[in-house]
């Protein structure tokens, strides 16, 4: 329940920032030009693909296949890290286009703020994912720990929270990506 409230609160923050960005682009900086960096396009595909692997991980957990679960969570961890690297590369490309905080580029500040806030959320998700991945790794080596992990409501809730939060992050990024794509 608390996670849902936190996600709703974050969604409101992202929504407000998108409205403020749109207003700035339309009313204040209508003539400002920039191109969405290609790493942002690739990172969008990466984060969507990570959701597929997380779905597979959830199925592995339900089937008590902990070796497979660890592998799938490892893929998600790798793809999440790749997403972060691509976002930083995208920022580097923006700087190369002289899209910075200098001058009257308020839209640039919103772009960095929204993508940076999303990266912060993703970092929290990656740390939580890493914690679960380590626990699953330990459980996959011991049949007793595997049984405890599979049947403990606490572990089931952790996996469920991870899946919900990760898909939330995916949706937020995809919405922001298309928003940026059509407003730049």
Structural class: mainly alpha
Overall CATH class: Mainly Alpha
> Number of DSSP strands?
0
Give the fraction of residues assigned to helices. Answer: over 70%
Assembly state: single chain
CATH topology description:
Four Helix Bundle (Hemerythrin (Met), subunit A)
Nearest-integer average pLDDT: 90
Distance between the termini: 36 Å
Q: What is the CATH H-level superfamily?
A: Cytochrome c oxidase, subunit III, four-helix bundle
Rg (CA only): 19 Å
Main sheet properties: none
Task: Produce a short descriptive summary.
By secondary structure, the protein is an all-alpha fold. The chain contains 6 helices and no strands.
Question: Can you offer a commentary on this structure?
Answer:
This protein has 184 residues and is mainly α. It contains 6 helices and no strands. The two termini are 36 Å apart. It has one domain: Four Helix Bundle (Hemerythrin (Met), subunit A), CATH 1.20.120. The mean pLDDT is 90. It is elongated and about 65 Å long.
Entry keywords:
184 residues, Four Helix Bundle (Hemerythrin (Met), subunit A), 0% strand, elongated
Topology:
Layout: H1 2-28, H2 38-62, H3 66-96, H4 106-140, H5 143-151, H6 153-183
Helix pairs in contact: 1-4, 1-6, 2-3, 2-6, 3-4, 4-5, 4-6
């Amino acid at each position: 329940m608390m996670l849902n409230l936190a996600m709703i609160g974050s969604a409101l923050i992202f929504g407000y920032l998108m409205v403020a960005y749109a207003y700035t682009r339309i009313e204040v900086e209508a003539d400002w030009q920039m191109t969405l960096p290609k790493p942002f396009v690739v990172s969008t595909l990466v984060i969507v693909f990570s959701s597929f692997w997380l779905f597979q991980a959830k199925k592995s957990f339900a089937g008590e296949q902990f070796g497979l679960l660890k592998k799938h969570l490892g893929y998600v961890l790798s793809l999440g890290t790749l997403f972060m690297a691509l976002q930083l590369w995208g920022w580097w490309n923006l700087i190369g286009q002289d899209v910075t905080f200098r001058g009257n580029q308020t839209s640039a500040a919103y772009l960095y703020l929204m993508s940076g806030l999303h990266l912060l959320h993703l970092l929290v998700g990656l740390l939580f994912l890493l914690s679960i991945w380590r626990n699953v790794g330990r459980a996959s080596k011991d049949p007793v720990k595997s049984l405890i992990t599979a049947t403990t409501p606490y572990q089931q809730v952790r996996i469920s929270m991870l899946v919900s939060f990760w898909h939330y992050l995916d949706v937020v990024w995809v919405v922001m990506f298309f928003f940026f794509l059509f407003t730049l």
